[in-house]
Amino acid sequence: MADVTPSSVVSPGSTFDLGAFVGDLNVEDDLGSDDVSLEGLQQELEECKNDEVVANILSKGTKLRDYTKGVENDLRKVELDSIQDYIKESDNLVSLHDQIRDCDSILSHMETLLSGFQAEIGSISSDIKILQEKSMDMGLRLKNRKVAESKLAKFVEDIIVPPRMVDILVDGEVNEEYLRTLETLSKKLKFVEVDPMVKASKALKDVQPELEKLRQKAVSKVFDFIVQKLYALRKPKTNIQILQQNVLLKYKYVITFLKEHGKEIYNEVRAAYIDTMNKVLSAHFRAYIQALEKLQLDIATAEDLIGVETRSSGLFTRAREPLKNRSAVFALGDRINIIKGIEEPALIPHIAEASSLKYPYEVLFRSLQKLLMDTATSEYNFCEDFFGEENVFYEIFSGPFGVIDEHVNTILPNCYDAIGLMLMILIIRQHQLIMSRRRIPCLDSYLDKVNISLWPRFKMVFDMHLSSLRNANVRTLWEDDVHPHYVMRRYAEFTASLIHLNTEYGDGQLELNLERLRMAVDDLIIKLAKNFPKPKLQTVFLINNYDMTIAVLKEAGPEGGKIQMHFEELLKSNTTLFVEELLQEHFNDLIKFVKSRASEDSTSSNDKPITVAEVEPLVKDFASRWKAAIELMHKDVITSFSNFLCGMEILRAALTQLLLYYTRLSDCIKRIVGGSALNKDLVSISSIMYEIRKYSRTF
Q1: 357: Cβ–Cβ under 8 A, 6 or more apart, which residues?
Q2: DSSP label at 445?
Q3: In whole angstroms, what is the distance from residue 98 CA to residue 167 CA?
Q4: DSSP string of 191-227?
């Protein structure tokens, strides 16, 4: 701010001449100056076009020069007024000036102080930075020392051998504490073997001999301990599974330790366990098989075939089981229950023997396979858990597999029970599913092998039945009896059994073999029928056999399929044939006339039209004995057919056909000239219907 001197300030009481101070201002001289430039005037006029003041001036027509002069005078007046105001405030300005100067002096002193402070702060900041660097360096050193201390402490802990550890491993008993100490020793042994820095340390030279001694002592001690436990498995009547689960598995870390730090000793323990279990299980299965063989019920022999006659046994024929037991050769019966109870416990031989019970071989087979399956499952899980490898199981069970294979290979060549063989195939199939649900694969190859051995034997026995039908001696098999033949019953029961068993298994090859069997029995039954002297007896024989076969197939279930349909067609065709034969036997003339002449038109130009004389004997004959004939037909049907329902169905068909023939005869008489004369002899349809109802139970 500029200094204002006292001499230059006018006192308020004096008069100030503004005109003298600023001089005269000559506006006109300025306006008349030659330096006036009109450049940009047009643009300025355009910009001021919308200005209210300019527009007002232009609208009033005021001269610009006059207006300018007025503005200049106003400005001068305002300027003089502001100067006068400034003079009035001169004292305040002087005071303000002094205050500003004092403030300036104070601020200058403060600036000096702050400059000193700034220098000191800069020095302190430098010291703080140095301290911070030192602190970070100390922190890093501390961290490194802690890491080093931690590693060193871990190294010392991992490498030292505490006296307590030595005492336990050398003198302690093998128990849970011993196992924990053994685990600690294992960690120390791995530590000195794996870490290359440890191998280079001087401390290892002092500790390594001690660790090696402890390892050898521990290996020797646990070997003696585990072998002692394995010897307990050889004791008679030892529950192996309980010993495995409650004793051996508690010490499974011993096996892990030996596998890692005593491979040779581990192999010895492994071999000892395999040898022990192989012998123990083989002996158990051999004893079980011998006990089962005492319970076996012989179902079939090589002579028990479909096409072999029952009277072929002579004085020197081997004694067989009673017929009630041998009926299972062809019929399934209750033997199917073995599949329904597939997961029931295995037989206990001494209990069954004490009860004097005998069983078909498939029952014994299921018990043997069930025992094998459960034993194998338990042993496989134990080997996986205890040894950590499944090969131990297969080496152990090479013995039991051999014992069972030897037994099966002895039984199969002498097995002629096709139903039993098929049941055994289904048992193996069910056991495969059970093992699959258990997710235990150890018996897959064994069960496949057994299944492969069963099918060829079944096929051979089946072919023996087929050959017995194809090569059957019709002369020795034939019996003068129209009732179902025992060969046909055998076939029906045998086929129904296999169809029922194959429903679940679904073997297409078996279906083809059953079709071959059906063709063979078809040929045989027709050959047997031809031995009857009368066609009617032949037909009755075939109907009885077909009806019985269908009934047996239906009893076995709704799975008869194409075979059942085939016999139903044969039954239907032979029933039609029998009905015609039965009616011709009693109403031959009437049937011949109806078939040959009843369809002719009596009014046609035929050489020989139907006359009353030609029909009258037929009508009178029928009227005189139709009731007696029906009675004879009823007795004939009752005595001919063993199945009452089938006989009634056939009688119903015969009477229906008779009614049809007589109706056609009545219609023919109505068309004959003069036929009304026979009305008195005609039997009414209602009378015939009434009589028929007395005999036909199915109307």
Answers
A1: 295
A2: H
A3: 101
A4: HHHH-HHHHT-HHHHHHHHHHHHHHHHHHHHHHHHHH
User: Considering only CA atoms, which of 435, 430, 471, 469 is closest in space to residue 451?
Assistant: 430
Q: How far apart are CA 568 and CA 559, in angstroms?
A: 14
Whether residue 491 is predicted with pLDDT greater than 90 in this model: the reply is yes
Q: Long-range contact list for 247-255, CB < 8 A, 24+ apart?
A: 248/382, 248/386, 249/382, 249/385, 249/386, 251/174, 251/179, 251/225, 251/226, 252/385, 252/386, 253/179, 253/182, 253/183, 254/174, 254/179, 254/182, 254/222, 254/225, 254/226, 255/226, 255/386, 255/387, 255/388
292 compared with 317, residue with greater pLDDT: 292
Strongest mean pLDDT among 52-56, 98-102, 233-237, 327-331: 98-102
Predicted local distance difference test score (pLDDT) of residue 601: 54
The CA distance from 648 to 663, in Å, is 22
pLDDT tens digits for range 439-483: 999 999 999 999 999 999 999 999 999 999 999 899 888 888 889
Note the pTM of the prediction, 2 decimals: 0.71
Q: What share of the chain is helix, strand, coil (3-state, %, to 5)?
A: 75, 0, 25
216 neighbors 261 (Cβ within 8 angstroms)? no
What is the chain's mean pLDDT, rounded?
82
**β-sheet bridge partners, residue 462:** none
**pLDDT score recorded for residue 419:** 93
Tokens representing 22 are 């600023």
Q: Cα separation of 636 and 539, whole Å?
A: 13
**Can you tell me the distance from the alpha carbon of 381 to that of 474, in angstroms, rounded to the nearest whole number?**
60
Neighbours of 183 (CB within 10 A): 12
Q: Which of 149, 191, 187 is nearest to 165 (CA)?
A: 187
Residue type, 679: N
Separation CA 173–CA 155 (nearest Å): 29
**Cα distance between the two ends of the chain:** 145
CB 443 within 8 A of CB 376: yes
What number of CA atoms fall less than 13 Å from residue 54's CA on the CB side? 8
Residues 6+ apart with CB under 8 A from 677: 612
| pLDDT tier at 560, thresholds 50, 70, 90 | low
DSSP E strands: which ranges in 300-433?
none
**What amino acid is encoded at 87 in this protein?**
I
